[in-house]
Amino acid sequence: PAQREERELAENDGIEFLELLAPRTFDGTTLSCDVMTLGDYDASGRRAVSATGERQELDFDLVVSAVGARVDTTGFVANGLALDARGFCELTEQLETSLPGVYVAGDCKAGPQTVVRAMADAKLIACDILAKLEQSPDFQTFEPQACREELLLKKGVLIATDALSQDPTDASPQTDASRCLSCNSLCEVCVDVCPNRANVAITTNTAFAQSSQILHLDRLCNECGNCAVFCPTAGKPYLDKPTLFATPEDFENSSNQGFLPLDDGHYRLRLTDDLIVEKAMDDPELPTLWRALGGVVTSTYDYLLT
User: In this predicted model, what pLDDT tens digit does every residue of 279-296 receive, in sequence order?
Assistant: First the structure.
């Protein structure tokens, strides 16, 4: 997705956007396209696209194809690996296939993913292989020592280009590491980039691994997707984060896990996709994390409830 400013900058540079053209063939000079038209809205709110039967030909000296990617699963079939309904391999929790000793990671696991997720898959697989060899993994985990206040200040610091060596092999680890914002300890990018302030950071207690948690305010969100674009973990905060609802209608029209204040002091909570309960926030039957989150909202951030 592009912001309006980005599109305007591109147009100022002479870039043309030709919409509703579907490429068919390119012979090295001429790109032949089907002229498309928008149809009715489907259940997801998107408009279907269909061909009009017309063609348009465009002259180019270079065409860069960027129309998406998918996994070639022919190797799975050729080697007799058990597949699921989507055509991907059936895997154990350690990502091992039906053929012992053969693992699947990254995009091949379930479709296009991020590089970080592929690295996590590889680490999980390596640990399983080592366990079978009765060896212990020697992976090291680095825990940053900076406190929250230091990390918040660091987000506003830019490293000048001349502060880093021009020779990558010459750069000191300390200088290079100083560029890291430690988003595993403090991220809040979805708070920074939300134009409607629909994502807010609240300080919780020791029930959570991180004291700073994100609460999504449904009434302020227009689902622009900006937080999903900038999320470093490829998440979708406007859909994934615990959500505070303002009205029963908003609650019913959403599938987000979250809670709605009721008139009697209780709350309607969607704990999972198919589990909705009405309870007080201190009800011991509620999961610990929901009690902790709801408790701090009602006691410290009660202005969000009105």
Answer: 999 899 998 889 989 889
Q: For the whole prediction, is pTM greater than 0.85?
A: no
Name the 3-class secondary structure at 131: helix
Amino acid at 178: S
In 3D space, the residue among 60, 11, 69 whose CA is nearest the CA of residue 33 turns out to be 60
Q: How far are the Cα atoms of 84, 181, 193, 268, 269 from residue 291, in angstroms, in the given order?
A: 37, 30, 28, 13, 11
How is residue 238 written in tokens? Answer: 């406007």
User: Which residue(s) pair with 259 in the sheet?
Assistant: 244, 269
pLDDT band at 173 (very low <50, low <70, confident <90, very high): low
CB 216 within 8 A of CB 258: yes
pLDDT in tens, 47-84: 889 999 999 999 999 998 877 777 888 899 999 999 98
229 Cβ contact partners less than 8 Å away, ≥ 6 residues apart:
1, 193
Edge-to-edge strand ranges of the sheet holding 267-272: 199-203, 212-217, 243-244, 258-261, 267-272, 275-279
Rounded Cα distance, 14 and 285, in Å: 61
Please name which of 248, 257, 253, 279 lies closest in space to residue 266, comparing C-alpha atoms: 279
CA distance 236 to 1: 14
